[in-house]
């Protein structure tokens, strides 16, 4: 029953992880030109 919800949460966490790894932390975006 909760498998889909857990999967969605895991997928979102993975997306955030890859975004931070590729682009850097969000708080550095405004610093970069």
Entry keywords:
single chain; 33 residues; mainly alpha; 64% helix; 0% strand; rod-shaped
SS element count, helices = 1
Distance between the termini: 46 Å
Measured as a percent range, the helix fraction is 55-70%
Q: Give the tally of β-strands.
A: 0
- Output the structural class: mainly alpha
Please give the radius of gyration in angstroms.
13 Å
Total domain units: 1
Q: What is the average of the pLDDT values?
A: 84
Q: Which regions are unreliable across 5 or more consecutive residues at pLDDT < 50?
A: none
**Coarse shape:** rod-shaped
What kind of sheet is the major sheet? none
Strand portion, in percent? under 5%
N-to-C order of helices and strands:
H
Short description:
The protein has 33 residues and is mainly alpha-helical. The chain has one helix and no strands.
Descriptive report:
The protein has one helix and no strands. It has 33 residues and is mostly helical. It has one domain. The chain is rod-shaped, with a radius of gyration of 13 Å.
